Amino acid sequence: MTSTPTLLDVQNLSVHYAGTRKMFGSDNAPIKAVQGVSLTLREGETLGLVGESGCGKTTTGQAILRLLPNNGGSINFMGEDITRYDRARMRPLRRKMQVVYQDPFGSLNPRMTAAELVAEPLVVHRIVASRAERRERAAELLDTVGLGSRMLDRYPHEFSGGQRQRLAIARALSVRPQMLLCDEPVSALDVSIQAQVLNLFLDLKERYALSYLFVSHDLAVVRHVSDRVAVMYLGRIVETASRDDLYREPLHPYTRILLSAVAVPDPDLERSRPFAPPKGEVPSVVRPPSGCPFHPRCPQAIARCAQELPLPRAVGSGRIVACHLYEDSVDVSAAIAASSADARTAAHHLQTTQP
User: Fold this and answer.
1) Is the pLDDT of residue 348 over 90?
2) Which residues contact 258 (CB under 8 A, 6 or more apart)?
3) How far is it, in rounded angstroms, from Cα 232 to Cα 39?
4) CB 3.0–4.6 Å: which of 162, 198, 237, 322 could bond 193 by disulfide?
């Protein structure tokens, strides 16, 4: 995988929102939703972006697709620096990067049939001029996602939740993209339907040589589909590793807490496995804590954590961790061994649980 060409390279991405205006006096400080995020996505790879609600996952994905303006950093897609591209320059690239949203019903025009919804991108990008050919392409895509051409003339409200998500996937695939941003695409579905849709994503990845940026808060889902995983907390990436390494031996304290919080369907295992929830509440993104953003809740925080922001550093082969436990000044091997003892138990349970 390491020799595979890079499709997407994001460096030090930042996204800020204007602060709300006070009734008296000056404006509030800007909201720093995403700060210094760096990640890469290789051709044919799935990168899982995981974290708690409100950590900046969706904002990161939308900024990468240039649906939101960024305040800093660079975005390189298919060899082009698209960081400052306007709408006109982005238009040809929209064919190469598509998105599947969490709520398909909200992203599909209720007045259009399935055939019209799937064919609309072909019209927008002037790919297919003939109406008959567009309908034929739509029928082919509905068959591909498991709906069947018999549903071409149905409206979104006539589909179930899982079927609507398949329709949204067919629409995204109509322009033959290189990359799909999947923003919580199965979180609103029943567990049994989740598994079917996730397996569809895997099949389509092989069939069309797709790359996925897969955003989710569900670590079991991310493990099922991802090749590598980036863990996000309060607008920053705290750990990036291959799927197997991260679930076998999570390093950052926040990653370990996330893994240990995943429910296990076996009641006996659920009662016996260790779980130490983080202290306190998630800090406000308007007034983030000094130093490491996770230090007020971290069970292994040291004095340095409250004073200095940890920079991402390579730990082992292909792993990046932003934590003072793994700085050059400490014994990295000893820190890994000590911090991973409890995490292995939680990770083992998760590895045996499929969505």
Assistant:
1) no
2) 50, 51, 52, 219, 231, 250
3) 11
4) 162
Stretch 112-129: mean pLDDT, rounded?
92
What tokens appear for 143 in the block?
């068959």
What is the 8-class DSSP label of residue 287? S
Given CATH 3.40.50.300, say whether it is the number of domain 6-96+177-351.
yes
**List of residues 6+ apart from 175 with CB closer than 8 A:** 94, 95, 98, 121, 122, 125, 127
21-25-26 Cα angle (round to 5): 55
Cα–Cα distance, 30 to 17 (Å, whole number): 6
Nearest to 75 by CA among 90, 92, 63: 63
How far apart CA 297 and CA 288 sit, in angstroms, is 12
Is pLDDT above 60 for 68?
Answer: yes
Reported as a single tens digit per residue, the pLDDT across 8-53 is 999 999 999 887 666 665 566 788 999 999 999 999 999 999 998 8
pTM of the full structure? 0.88
Q: Which two tokens stand for residue 209?
A: 């040589």
Structure tokens at 197: 């849709």
Q: Which residues, 6+ apart, have CB-to-CB distance to 354 below 8 Å?
A: 195, 220, 224
Is residue 37 within 8 Å of residue 60, measured between CB atoms?
yes
Boundaries of every domain in the chain: 6-96+177-351, 110-168
Rounded Cα gap, residues 160 and 181, in angstroms = 22
Q: Output helix, strand, coil percentages for the chain, rounded to the nearest 5.
A: 40, 20, 40
- Distant-in-sequence, close-in-space partners of 66: CB < 8 Å, separation ≥ 6: 75, 82, 85, 90
341 Cβ contact list (under 8 Å, min separation 6): none
